[in-house]
Amino acid sequence: MNRLTFLPGKRAWKFFMLILVFVHCTVNGQDTFDYFCRVYFKDKGANTPLNYLSSDLLSTRAINRRAKSGKTAPDYSDLPVFKEYINQVEQLGFTFHCTSKWMNTALFKAKSMPDTALLKRLPFVADAKIVKKPVGKSRYSDKYDLITGTADLQPFNRPLTMLNGDVLHSSGYDGTGILIAVLDAGFSFSDIVTSLINLRNRKGIKYTWDFVKNDPRVYDYHEHGTAVLSVLAGQSEGNIEGTAPGADFILLRTEDPSSEFSVEEDFWAAAAEFADSAGADIISSSLGYYNFDEPSLDYKYSDLNGNTAFVTRVADMAASKGILVVCSAGNERNKPWIHIIAPADGDSVLAVGAVDGDGLISAFSSAGPSSDGRVKPDNTAMGVNVATQTSISSYSRMSGTSFSCPVLSGMAATLLQAIPDATNIEIIDAIHLAGDRFSVPDTLYGYGTPDMIKALDYLQELHLKLPDKGILTWPNPTTGEVEINFSDSPGSLIIEIFTSYGSLVYRKDFSEYAGRNIAIRALSDKPQGIYLIKLKTGKGTFVNKIIKLNN
């Protein structure tokens, strides 16, 4: 793949190598370790913010995203885990796997039962916990069993149309310029399935990494991530229409489909931190945790308070860095657990439940609230019989909050494209406010299924310079680009540009335009002179004179 194409020059490789220092281990599946141990450190040793420039630890995209949210970088949580601490643990016979700089932990593995007491006696170790060990046949060998449906099928693009997302797409908002990190169990066949041809041809997959095996290849292991990616980016007329087909993606494997252990939270953390450093705008994760193959590791419902589960604390930390974190609420309501699962309980995580194509809550969609009483799930989207692709050339319908999650995370990408100055928290607020149950949220639907036009309008009111009446065309004079702002949504929209002699040089038609601003670059290659911009909207016709100057 075109790895790291979004990072510039030599500095990119310096940044890249610094990350991989803390991810390195056995490559190409030769790992035979049965035990994994998470070690918590008391501090970061000699590492201080004074030792690093922002560009040493973060890409330009990440620095700019942080700045948008008013975050300075680097801060203490950005500092790498102290390498000397890792070295001293390795000297005790452990093999290093990865770190979480945010949680100040390192993950080690061993072929025999680790002595955690020995680790805890080290002066710089705060705690040590076994997060994976042999316990016999997994209870979760089918934990990503993809449920397919054939009855009561809605139109293939119903996940999009029920949110008015098709109007955003037809208005030009398809996620272009937004970087989405997808954390999943594997992406089998994503490198060949037909609905992702456009994504691959435009080199929209920017990076791949398997944090379970520490290997760049992710196109194995499981097709769950492929189904998710097809909901986000799939394009096939009459078969599938992704919610963010113009976005770019980082594909990160964090799950071992053959088992369920807390170690997968460590993989998730390492992936989230990489996504942050690489400058991802959104993390879309159709994963969750509450019980494990080893019962002593299980979470209790009381732990779903936004502050206890390891992965939830990581997800909220990612959100604090300006990333929009979107997660599945879980498929547990028709099972003994019933409740949402981590990290959906995070207070800065957008947790997504699943409704059918008629907007009715599914039987499986996990119930809220969080154990401390907050509204969860946050919102709902279609997660019943969603069009997906996991085989080379055929399509299927699948159900689960695994699919309502990418429906909504893709729609969030279109909002970020439309309003690039919006923060992750503002996006969440907008989606809440646009929900059909915003005034009466409950424990099944949360704030409900959002109307993305309403969400966009809310963000436009926050961030755009909108006229009190009519339209505003600026800058005037211009050297090429012209921006038009509307006091109200124009509805239908036809844009025409004429020379002063009446010759048509540009025309664009929208049957329905969702935004209240539009940028036009048609004059960039036109000669200096006077032009007329004619706007035909559902509310009238407007004509503005524009002076084009040479660059």
What order do the helices and strands come in, and which of them pair?
Blueprint: H1 9-21, E1 35-41, H2 54-57, H3 60-68, H4 83-90, E2 95-100, E3 105-110, H5 116-120, E4 125-132, E5 147-148, H6 158-161, H7 165-170, E6 179-184, H8 197-201, E7 205-210, H9 224-233, E8 235-236, E9 240-241, E10 248-253, H10 263-278, E11 282-285, H11 310-320, E12 324-328, E13 349-355, E14 379-382, E15 386-388, E16 396-399, H12 401-418, H13 424-433, H14 452-463, E17 471-474, E18 482-486, E19 491-499, E20 504-513, E21 517-520, E22 529-537, E23 540-548
Parallel strand pairs: 6-10, 6-11, 7-10, 11-12, 12-13, 13-14
Antiparallel strand pairs: 1-3, 1-4, 2-3, 5-16, 8-9, 15-16, 17-18, 18-21, 19-20, 19-22, 22-23
Helix pairs in contact: 9-12, 10-11, 13-14
Would you mind describing this structure in some detail?
The chain has 551 residues and is of the alpha/beta class. The chain folds into two domains: 1-162 and 176-435, Peptidase S8/S53 domain (Rossmann fold), CATH 3.40.50.200; 471-548, Immunoglobulin-like (Sandwich), CATH 2.60.40.3080. It has helices at 9-21, 54-57, 60-68, 83-90, 116-120, 158-161, 165-170, 197-201, 224-233, 263-278, 310-320, 401-418, 424-433, 452-463, and strands spanning 35-41, 95-100, 105-110, 125-132, 147-148, 179-184, 205-210, 235-236, 240-241, 248-253, 282-285, 324-328, 349-355, 379-382, 386-388, 396-399, 471-474, 482-486, 491-499, 504-513, 517-520, 529-537, 540-548. A seven-stranded parallel β-sheet has the order 7-10-6-11-12-13-14, with helices on both faces. The protein has a four-stranded antiparallel β-sheet with strand order 2-3-1-4, with helices on both faces. A four-stranded antiparallel β-sheet has the order 20-19-22-23. Helix 9 runs parallel beside helix 12, helix 10 packs parallel to helix 11 (310-320) and helix 13 (424-433) crosses helix 14. The longest helix is centred in the C-terminal third of the chain and has 18 residues, at 401-418.
